[in-house]
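Hey there, shall we discuss this one?
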Amino acid sequence: MNGKLISLLLTVLLLAGCGWNLFSSGPTLDDKIGQMLMVGFRGTVVGRDHFILRDIRRYNLGGVVLFDQDTLQKQDKRNISSPAQLKVLTISLQQAASTPLLIAVDQEGGKVARLKEGAGFPTTRSHRNLGWLDDLTTTDKEADKIAATLADLGINLNLAPVVDLCSNPNNPVIAKRERCFSDDPNKVTAHALSYIKAHHRHGVLTTLKHFPGHGSSQADSHLGFTDVSNTWSARELLPFTRIIAAGQADAIMTAHVFNARLDSRYPATLSKTIVDDLLRGRFCFEGVVISDDLQMRAIADHYGLETAIFQAIDAGVDILVFGNNLTYDEEIVPRTIELIRKMVDSGKISKDRIDQSYGRITEMKSRLENSFNEATR
């Protein structure tokens, strides 16, 4: 054996000892699982040692979600204090990523707006206000203002619009907070499509909320078990199906509501019948399904972390959200990756199932390449 060959073999062995896989042709299983997670964190700035940058770099974390208020600490300015600060934050996050990072926020408008006028952001109108006006030109103008703001700040995923019907005017988490356009599915669909198209003009992705319908609920799933079995109507599905048919649904967020008329055992986020059979099978949705926050009490009070993760993935959910705002866990990403990897190793979840989600997420993110290249230049 000549000296050059020996030197090459030694180099390969040394690199392998450092964790390199010279023969890998693509992402590892852990890389793919990392892309399936979206996590919240504390801080208006992130230093080099902040756990969220560690998770983006080391675990290929796919997304983050930003909040203006810290629920646990009862403080403002959790991630957002001003437009200038927020822009620096999103650039810092994006520069840590090797592929486009989903940077998400709930900027519906009105009462549910993380970017508030008091912090220097433009004023917004609620969905309900736009529905009352019922002028699509106004809806387009207002949504365009939101989308332009998000795009300028480096936020690429709006967790909006809400397409739940205002079917229960006393609903504490939807109608009472003016988050629904109307109780008429035709009107909801029209305004939601206008809202979505305005975002797309600025390269911002959107999320339909909350499948299969949260508008008839009498309780808040943030606070506990929410049963819509006796109040839900199939009319609540119409905005979802029509927007899917129009090819305008980037992502759809599941509700944590229990609906025995659709699944007598599991709430929607954990239901294979609702997500895989109904949303994907019957309604032919091929895009990304995002869970509502898995730390909300409707899930956390009734299912252990491992059970919730397994049921959500088995149901067909692609991105698991841990807002870290109802409980706070800086190790949620490595813990979740380890749990999912063990499920794959044991055969409880197939590698094909992980590949399905990874493929959907990658396809959606391909639409963000231009903005990602600008942010990381």
